[in-house]
Specification:
By secondary structure, the protein is an alpha+beta fold. It has ten helices and eight strands. It is globular. It starts with 6 loop residues before the first strand and ends in a 5-residue tail after the last helix. The chain has a three-stranded antiparallel beta sheet, with helices on one face. A three-stranded antiparallel beta sheet has the order 4-6-7, with no helix packed on it.
Amino acid sequence: MTASGLAWLRVTCAPTDQIVALFWNGNIEAEARLPRSIPRPRLRAWRDWNDQQWTYRGELFDHAALRPVANSAAIAVVPELPRRWWTALRSALDDIGTLSTDRVAIQQGFLDWVMPRYLGTPIDTLAPASWATAHGDFHYANLCGPDLCLLDWEGWGTAPRAYDAAMLHSYSLLVPDAAERVRRELGCILDTPDGHFAELAVISELLHAAARGVSPGLVQPLRQRAARLLGRTLPTFTEIRSGPMD
């Protein structure tokens, strides 16, 4: 409790010589740059301190009574979200995408490596994506309901256009009805060349994470979705593991 009411306190730390500015300053830069139309807890104040080896940051946010839609990025049941939530979501994605920033949520060089690795080659038939600003971690644990509120802005920056919508769809694939709802509500974003490219980029990224133990249950639905988008089968994981860059 503060003098101005309830608040959230977020404290993070990192070795002083290993701070990644993109993530370290993400919330502060979001507070300075994001329009008020994007629903999120507002950052009231922050403070840094350090000892001999570690740097710490405390960030004080407005308190939000809303709860995340899910406790994890991927969902296991269809979330019950009202029509106004989806309307607000589309509006927020529009507002985020129009922002100008030199922050980068995902590197082109990483996509150049990860997409052919997990999707197979050739990929020269893929339409090149245009780029736009994205939240960068757009999944159900970072989205509140039943009124929309967007959490965790540490990694926002430029990404393939439609990246956020593609990420939400990919994290819905364990629940076909939920994935279909995302496609229906965000079809104007996903059913485009940019949307297809963004899906393939996100799928590659999540398959790379799954190979390291993150959400392994998503592997099969991700591969099935990629195969449908590409119109061909994907390489096996044996072929992926035997490739270069291991």
